[in-house]
Amino acid sequence: MVRWQPGTSGRLQAAALELFASNGYEQTTAAEIAQSVGLTERTFFRHFSDKREVLFHGQELMVDAFLAGLVAAPGEATPMELVAAALESAAELFPDERRGHSRLRQSVIEQNPALQERERHKMSVLAATLGDALRGRGIPEPAATLAAESATTVFGVSFTQWIGAGEQRSMVEIERTVLAELRNLTAARPAAKA
Amino acid sequence: MVRWQPGTSGRLQAAALELFASNGYEQTTAAEIAQSVGLTERTFFRHFSDKREVLFHGQELMVDAFLAGLVAAPGEATPMELVAAALESAAELFPDERRGHSRLRQSVIEQNPALQERERHKMSVLAATLGDALRGRGIPEPAATLAAESATTVFGVSFTQWIGAGEQRSMVEIERTVLAELRNLTAARPAAKA
DNA sequence: GTCTATAGTGCGATAGAC
DNA sequence: GTCTATCGCACTATAGAC
Questions:
Q1: Which end of chain B is less congested by CB atoms within 10 angstroms, N or C?
Q2: Contacts of B125 (CB under 8 A, 6+ apart)
Q3: How high is the pLDDT of residue A187?
Q4: How far is the CA of A29 from the C1' of D4 (A)?
Q5: Are A21 and A85 in the same domain?
Q6: For residue range B87-140, what is the model confidence (pLDDT) as tens digits?
Q7: What is the extent of the structural domain holding B15?
Q8: Average of pLDDT values for B7-21?
Q9: pLDDT over 90 (residue A7)
Q10: Are B71 and B167 within one domain?
Q11: Is residue A136 over pLDDT 50?
């Protein structure tokens, strides 16, 4: 009998999402998740520093995707062009097939304030990493931080729309629209004519 | 002998900040904080829903300040003008005398990821509340959310600068500069001439 | 105000991979 | 043999229930 199998983290993540979705986050103990895949509570905490983290592993992939967009952009790109490039690159992680999974995961997160906090924290780490990368390309402060935060804001708004009921547009399509809206908003000198 | 004194929450907050700063956040138990002001652990948790919250009570004042700025703005104001008004109003909560206190509090928060998460969450709640208020003024989506998030971003960047070593400028002064930088950043069509 | 479940840690032992 | 994943147990603090 095998004592351990590969993909332990992944199996724990899948089991956790399933249990959280059906029984609720707080009603599901770490021990239950572990037992459901034949492991112990202690092993769960070896893979995930805390219970929430089981829902957020994989966010490093997103950071990498944003950074890949920056790396591929031309050297003379403006900060906002870099933001656009990062967003386009990140959108590849959200193909239409993943909408269902994203919706399920998000519904769990929305049901628990502690999970919302963790999500915000991850976005914040993403923004900080992006800011570092922009500074690394010679963009000064506070432009680098503002651009990085704008990128995550646009991403967040776009993601919310993407998983919205009845939404058909692709992630990249939505991102472009939202980014254009941000440009328009901040550039607007005259008020509305209403 | 008095059984309780007024300002219990305030005394717990002050004691907590002091203990966190000198002994570290994780090394300080809720029971210790309570005992240091002659109360029991149970009483601590009656005032604060969890241990972190003792550092974040008072953030409602900030939400109110942002909203007050919106209310005072003229009806035909553009979203970005409303953002500016909210920021000016919020700056009043950060007079120069408070810089020292803000620096100490922030140094504690920066030492602990859990506290950083809570801080992000509070900013997020602020952004959501601002977004509601903007929608209440007839600003459509996604402009309302983008403007609200931009406001908190500018606030965050400004606050970081405000508590920076050697910083002399007032909060409102910094906010105006950062907001101008955001306008410039997003409006910029041509690239740098370097 | 007491009692309790659960999150999360520390340490030693064990079982396999290499 | 080393290295790492897992287990098992004892333990504290948080946080909620009674």
A1: N
A2: B63
A3: 81
A4: 26
A5: no
A6: 999 999 999 999 999 999 999 999 998 999 999 999 999 999 999 999 999 999
A7: 8-54
A8: 91
A9: no
A10: yes
A11: yes
Dihedral angle over CA of B85, B86, B92, B94, nearest 10? -130
Tokens of B56: 């974040």
Rounded CA-CA distance B111/A161 in Å is 35
Domain contains B137:
yes
Residues in B closer than 8 angstroms to A142, CB to CB, are 157, 161, 178, 181
My answer on whether B80 and B162 are in the same domain is yes
Q: Are B135 and A171 in contact (CB under 8 A)?
A: no
| Residue B76 scores a pLDDT above 70 | yes
Q: What is the CATH number of the domain that holds B142?
A: 1.10.357.10
Structural domains in chain A (count): 2
Q: Do the domain assignments include residue B192?
A: no
Same domain membership, residue A120 and residue A40: no
User: What pLDDT is stored for residue A2 in this prediction?
Assistant: 47
Tell me if B1 is assigned to some domain. Answer: no
Helix, strand and coil percent figures for chain B, each rounded to 5: 70, 0, 30
Residues with CB under 7 A from strand C: A 1-3, 28-31, 41-42, 45, 49-52; B 40, 42
Using pLDDT thresholds of 50, 70 and 90, give the confidence band for residue B58.
Answer: confident
Does residue A38 sit in the same domain as residue A72?
no
Q: Is the CB of A137 under 7 A from strand D?
A: no
